[in-house]
Amino acid sequence: MAEIVNLRRARKQRARQEAEQQAQQNRIAFGRTKAERSLTEAERDKAARTLDGHRLAPPDDEPTP
């Protein structure tokens, strides 16, 4: 014989598992301290400044796009 399954419990269990997966993803995406966020932003800004500093200027006779 097949095992009897309470559908209400099964739905609740599935909802709990989905909520836990979403919470895990949120912890990865948003679970950083303010210091970590500002350090990442500072590193990104420095990299952008360095890249812009190494760009070649377009010749004067060509229009810039």
Characterization of this structure:
With 65 residues, this protein is mostly helical. The protein is built from two helices and no strands. It has helices spanning 7-30, 34-53. The radius of gyration is 26 Å and the shape is elongated.
Provide the β-strand percentage band.
Answer: under 5%
- Unreliable spans are none
Largest β-sheet summary: none
Roughly how many Å is the radius of gyration?
Answer: 26 Å
* DSSP E strands, number: 0
Oligomer: single chain
Portion of residues within helices: 55-70%
Mean pLDDT: 89
- N-to-C series of helices and strands: HH
Q: Report how far apart the termini are.
A: 74 Å
Shape: elongated
Class inferred from helices and paired strands = mainly alpha
Summed up, the helix count is: 2
